[in-house]
Amino acid sequence: MATIWPFRHLGLKVLSVVLALLLWMIVSGEETVERGLRVPLELQQVPAGLELTGEVPATVDVRVRGASGTLSRVSTGDVVAVLDLRSARSGRRLFPLTPERVVVPFGVEVVQVQPSALAMAFEPSASRQVPVVPAVDGRPAPGYVVGALSADPKTVEVIGPETAVRRVTEALTEPVSVSGARDRVQQSVILGLIDPSLRLKNTRSAMVTVQIVPAPLERSLQGRPVHLRNVAPNLEAQAIPSAVGLTLRGSREALARVEADDIVAYVDLAGLGPGQYSLTVHADSSPEAGVTRIEPSSVQVRISSGK
């Protein structure tokens, strides 16, 4: 049987006791203090098929207690409030936030948590396909306009709370710049949703194609007579001025096919009796070459009894 020598390595043993005594004296001599912290709130165990709706605080206020030296070394990232949501159900629920739900380093005690409870609302999760709507920014080169827009994919699947999914009508794209463009613009852009409670299931980007086409041309027709329509029997009418200028807009080919007599300027006198009126001038035109401006836009019409 080995003999135990209590005085073997006596120097090391005495040194250990002295160091332990000094450490105890240092710790016991520290003042106990309290400190307020704003710490992150971590949500765990959200049940599958449920969506959290409304605003949820990202942080909570925690008051901690401990030795002054210990607390001086504690940073915000060392303390986390954890809320277990595995018992959540559809509807509005109240979850207590007690000191036991706050994770702290050794030697730190949680005295208080504010708020002491959090109200949260849950809805069933839903999904839906919505169209991708491209957006453009800027203006093409002079003489060109933005034509057809297309996106690939054309639709994306949106996931979120049931009521929000029912409301959503489209997914938006990051704007595609067409500044100074003279030809087709194609760009891969990020997709997004206006409602922050919604998210995209898979697709995060889309290839947007913007067609840049020559701008429709304009053509002016001056001195076009103003026709007086629907003058009542036994009445006479006169327009001042009796002629107006018209501006047409369309493609080069369409404007070339338009004859001056194809465009008729007129005012409608239906139901009007003798008197003087200020009436808007209208114009008949083809869909290919529409009238965009009439100068002047109105005329004075004098209606009198016939002789």
Question: Mind explaining what this structure looks like?
Answer:
By secondary structure, the protein is mainly beta. The chain has 3 domains: about 80 residues, Beta Complex (RNA Polymerase Alpha Subunit, Chain A, domain 2), CATH 2.170.120; about 90 residues, YbbR-like domain (RNA Polymerase Alpha Subunit, Chain A, domain 2), CATH 2.170.120.40; about 90 residues, RNA Polymerase Alpha Subunit, Chain A, domain 2 (Beta Complex), CATH 2.170.120. Helix content is about 10%, strand content about 50%. The chain has 4 helices and 24 strands. The strands form 5 sheets. Strands 2, 5, 8, 10, 11, 12, 14, 15 and 16 form a 9-stranded mixed β-sheet that branches. It has a 5-stranded mixed β-sheet with strand order 6-4-1-3-7. The longest helix has 20 residues. It is elongated and about 140 Å long. The model has no long low-confidence stretch (mean pLDDT about 85).
Give a short summary of the structure.
With 307 residues, the protein is mainly beta. The protein contains four helices and 24 strands.
Question: Within the CATH hierarchy, at the fold level, what is the topology of the largest domain?
Answer: RNA Polymerase Alpha Subunit, Chain A, domain 2
Distance between the termini: 150 Å
> Could you give a short account of the major beta sheet?
9 strands, mixed
- Domain count: 3
Report the CATH C-level class of the largest domain. Answer: Mainly Beta
Helix content: 10-25%
Tell me, what's the shape?
elongated
Please indicate the percent range of residues in DSSP E strands (runs of 2 or more). Answer: over 45%
Q: Would you report the number of β strands?
A: 24
- Rg over CA atoms, rounded to whole Å, is 40 Å
